[in-house]
Amino acid sequence: MGFRRCSSALVAIFSFIVLRFFVPLSSPGFFPESSTVYGGTLPAAQGKVIEGVIKPHTTLVATLIDLETPKEIAQEIARLVQPVFDTRLFHSGNPYKAEKDAGGALRAFEYKINDEKILKIQRGDDGYAANVAKVDLESRETIVTARISKHSNNLYAALGENDKAAVTLADGVASIFAWDVDFNSNLQVSDEIRVVVPALYHNGQFVKWGDIKAAELVNSGKTYRAFRFQDSYYDAKGNALKRSLLVSPLPFLRVTSGFSYRRLHPITGVNGAHLAVDYGAPTGTPVQAVAKGTVTFAGWYEGYGNLIRIKHSGGLSTGYAHLSRIASDIRVGASVSQGQVIGDVGQTGQATGPHLHYMMERGGKPINPMTIKSEPPIPLDSKLRPEFETAIAPLVKEFGK
Asked: How large a percentage of the chain has pLDDT more than 70?
């Protein structure tokens, strides 16, 4: 299958196209046999078709009753559905389609569970039947490119900040290179991103991005490359990108205050040490553990507000302060995994605005999180190298060398 190239100059246009044709949970185009107008009705061959979206705080039974289905029949349908789909998982805003016969009785009902599954209810000679059907998605391999500029100075902006699909793609790129690049502070103007990724379509309309097959980041003149192989990412030499320590507890926003032994405190006005890095971020932004470890403190601690401390291997420990929320499963003694969300950004304690106060110590001595080096990468098993090299050869060629 050939590649469709999207140059950096066309990123804005590409994002508009994706935004226009991306099929969100409220899109009528999801249902292939439908010829209706979203939110309205059109005559069917022997009845009519109604499309709409699930209302907030409602149920399947209530939705069917709103469609003038008798209560007893609505309850019967809900009982039939329960073995194949938990109706408590109905989401407000998800689209549905109902077909009625000439007499106004419900003939069929479809509900979009997600991008890949539909709940189908159909009336037959023996009554109603329900099943969950999988949506067939067409994969079109695509190359997306972007460039960091003064106006688009992070991955979100470069790849289409207000586009849900582009944000998902940016999150994917950030997670791939999270062990090598701090996207909060390392990106520079003219840095370039290139991604080989399948675009998934249904009935000719873009639905979502698939798993990134390969990615390239040129950061300050240094080129980072990643290739997907057996559900993990490796560089061209077969070294695993994933290591024991992430370079940042947040995706990519901005550093508002660095590690320093002498800084003017914004609240007290006194010069003192700031033995941490502050990341500015909106309240509610998820904070992730940079490495697996054990929680040694979780709660309110003086000027730090809501604070979490985690002990890692090798005498390393990290702290996360001013949180608006501590995750319910984070308590003293709990084990956490790398990348696990432990809380949300806030401004509790002594804080002039929402941000994460991120601390790191080794052997009880404060160290600058932005200078810590992760351990050497782990190479791929030599027995898998021939298969790996064959798999990435066409992707390496797409990157030019």
From this structure: 83
- For residues 128-148, average pLDDT: 91
What CATH number should be reported for the domain holding residue 184? 3.10.450.350
pLDDT for the residue numbered 343: 96
Q: Quickly state the pLDDT bin for 46 (edges 50, 70, 90).
A: low
Encoding tokens for residue 223? Answer: 């080129």
Mean pLDDT taken over the chain: 82
Inter-CA distances, 179 with 95, 225, 245, 280, 383, Å: 39, 12, 7, 20, 25
Residue numbers of the domain that contains 103: 28-114
Predicted model pTM: 0.58
Q: Is the residue at 355 inside a domain?
A: yes
- Indicate whether 79 and 107 sit together in one domain: yes
Long-range contacts: 335-338, Cβ < 8 Å, 24+?
335/292, 335/293, 335/294, 335/295, 336/289, 336/292, 336/293, 336/294, 336/295, 336/310, 337/289, 337/292, 338/244, 338/245, 338/246, 338/288, 338/289, 338/290, 338/291, 338/292
Q: Where are the alpha helices (DSSP H) in 67-201?
A: 71-81, 155-159, 164-176
| Dihedrals phi, psi of 160, to nearest 5 degrees | 110, 80
Q: Please, which residues bridge with residue 173 across strands?
A: none
Tell me the pLDDT tens digit for each residue of 141-175.
999 998 988 888 778 788 876 577 888 888 889 88
Phi, psi of 212, rounded to the nearest 5 degrees:
-60, 130
